[in-house]
């Protein structure tokens, strides 16, 4: 891309007025008419500067706004003058400003430090010099080039760019060469055509200033102090934290069987046969397991023989007229008969049956055959197959916020994305110790058919919960400020300490 293409492209993009003759043609004409055209070395220097400025105009023309254009211009020029310090600053037209007074530096970009703020010492020093440029009527060393001018100020070279002849907006480029090398910059300035600087000014000021919103935000940032921002932020945080929300109480949840029945050994006996294992469905009256009745049968046979002997003794005594002996034999027979009835009753309990219809959830004695059982020892647990319930462990400090019929949301890792919603049915009046914590137990009914996937109330049928699953529960309490959950206990402890 040559200089003519850059200028034409930028004219179409921004609609700004450029010089009548394209800069590239005028530079070429200036080079052709130059007295140094025959000097090949000088021509090469001019062509080198020409190519350098083409790249600068390219990055300016591609920039979306003036800030990006300034940053790109300084960085690109730093590549051509690597050991030089380059800064670019500009001011926009303000109310009451004139071409010679009222100018204030608006933005400043440094090739080494980046964008400088107003509290920076370099910014403050250059701002003073920026305001004095137009106050000097004909400063020594100033070369006027229409929309652009070049001057030497102390150790700096200043390139001034104006938006128009009235200088409604203008920018300054400060270039400070190394202490031992001013020849490069001097040669660079001498070989720089006037039309190139004018084109640079036109292209730079054709870039739009930041949008209204950014200007407004910049003014707000100037006005806004750190103390004010912290104060407003604190007030906003307090306002948000005081928004009333439903107080949530976290609790541990465990799935238990609703109306489950435990089946225990009815007598002291040895386990003989097991008919059911966990997971098997049972109906009322169906055999679950059998106990060994051989010792009872042996004892029953012995008692039967003794009863017959006592009956004979009673009959013989009555025949001999021995009334007293007959009465003693009768009492002995009655006692033995009572013992026989007890043994018969125990033998009727050798086959243990299911008390309800349901499913066996605990008790696998398949590998414990022949083990002596004690009366009352739990062997199996049977739960109804149509429903389960959830046991909640409510922390002691939160029990005051749990009401009957409060909404509960349950989540169990074992069932993934399933949501369970229910209500508190009952809360035990006394606390108990669970996992070294003092908690209150609450019961919530949870029919397995009410579980829905992803909380969808349409009721997609899912796999029932399994007894023993553990998860997390959230009990919905009364309305309280959002921050109340975190500050309630510290405030209460602090009040206790200070006696409030």
UniProtKB/TrEMBL annotation:
Segments traversing the membrane: 228-249
Name listed for the protein in its UniProt record: Uncharacterized protein
Top-level division of the source organism's lineage: Bacteria
Keywords: Membrane, Transmembrane, Transmembrane helix, Transport
InterPro entries in UniProt: MFP_Cation_Efflux
PANTHER family named among the record's database cross-references: CATION EFFLUX SYSTEM PROTEIN CUSB, SLR6042 PROTEIN
KW Metal-binding (keyword) present: no
Keyword Kinase: no
Listed GO biological process terms: copper ion export; plasma membrane copper ion transport
GO CC terms: cell envelope
Residue ranges, annotated region (Disordered): 1-21
Phylogenetic classification of the source organism: Bacteria, Pseudomonadati, Planctomycetota, Planctomycetia, Pirellulales
Native source organism of the sequence: Neorhodopirellula pilleata
Residue stretches of biased makeup (Polar residues): 1-15
């Amino acid at each position: 891309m040559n200089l003519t293409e850059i200028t034409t492209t930028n004219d179409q993009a921004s609609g700004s007025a450029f010089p009548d003759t394209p800069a590239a043609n005028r530079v070429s004409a200036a080079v052709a008419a130059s007295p140094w055209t025959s000097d090949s070395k000088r021509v090469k220097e001019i062509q080198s500067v020409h190519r350098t400025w083409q790249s600068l105009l390219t990055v300016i023309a591609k920039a979306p706004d003036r800030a990006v254009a300034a940053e790109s211009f300084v960085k690109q020029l730093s590549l051509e003058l690597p050991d030089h310090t380059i800064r670019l600053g500009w001011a926009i037209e303000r109310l009451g400003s004139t071409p010679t007074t009222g100018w204030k530096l608006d933005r400043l970009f440094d090739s080494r430090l980046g964008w400088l703020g107003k509290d920076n010492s370099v910014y403050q020093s250059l701002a003073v010099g920026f305001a004095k440029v137009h106050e000097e009527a004909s400063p020594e060393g100033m070369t006027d080039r229409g929309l652009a001018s070049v001057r030497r100020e102390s150790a700096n070279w200043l390139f001034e760019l104006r938006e128009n002849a009235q200088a409604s907006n203008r920018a300054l480029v400060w270039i400070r060469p190394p202490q031992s090398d001013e020849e490069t910059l001097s040669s660079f300035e001498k070989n720089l055509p006037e039309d190139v600087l004018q084109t640079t000014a036109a292209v730079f000021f054709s870039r739009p200033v930041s949008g209204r919103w950014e200007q407004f935000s910049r003014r707000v940032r100037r006005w806004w102090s750190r103390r004010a921002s912290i104060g407003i932020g604190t007030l906003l945080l307090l306002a948000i934290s005081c928004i009333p929300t439903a107080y949530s109480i976290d609790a541990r949840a465990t799935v238990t069987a609703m109306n489950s029945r435990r089946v225990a050994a009815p007598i002291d006996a040895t386990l003989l046969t097991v008919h059911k294992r966990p997971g098997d469905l049972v109906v009322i009256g169906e055999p679950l397991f059998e106990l060994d009745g051989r010792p009872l049968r042996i004892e029953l046979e012995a008692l039967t023989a003794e009863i017959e002997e006592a009956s004979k003794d009673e009959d013989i005594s009555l025949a001999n007229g021995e009334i007293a002996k007959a009465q003693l034999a009768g009492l002995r027979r009655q006692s033995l008969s009572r013992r026989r009835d007890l043994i018969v009753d125990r033998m009727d309990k050798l086959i243990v049956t299911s008390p309800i219809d349901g499913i066996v959830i605990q008790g696998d004695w398949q590998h414990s055959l022949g083990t002596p059982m004690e009366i009352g020892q739990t062997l199996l647990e049977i739960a109804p197959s149509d429903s389960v319930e959830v046991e909640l462990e409510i922390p002691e400090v939160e029990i005051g916020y749990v009401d009957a019929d409060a909404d509960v949301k349950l989540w169990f890792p074992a069932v993934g994305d399933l949501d369970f919603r229910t209500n508190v049915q009952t809360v035990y009046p006394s606390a108990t110790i669970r996992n070294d914590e003092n908690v209150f137990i609450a019961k919530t009914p949870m029919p397995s058919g009410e579980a829905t996937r992803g909380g969808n109330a349409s009721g997609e049928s899912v796999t029932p919960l399994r007894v023993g699953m553990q998860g997390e529960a959230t009990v919905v309490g009364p309305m309280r400020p959002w921050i109340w959950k975190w500050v309630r206990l510290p405030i209460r402890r602090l009040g206790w300490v200070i006696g409030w």
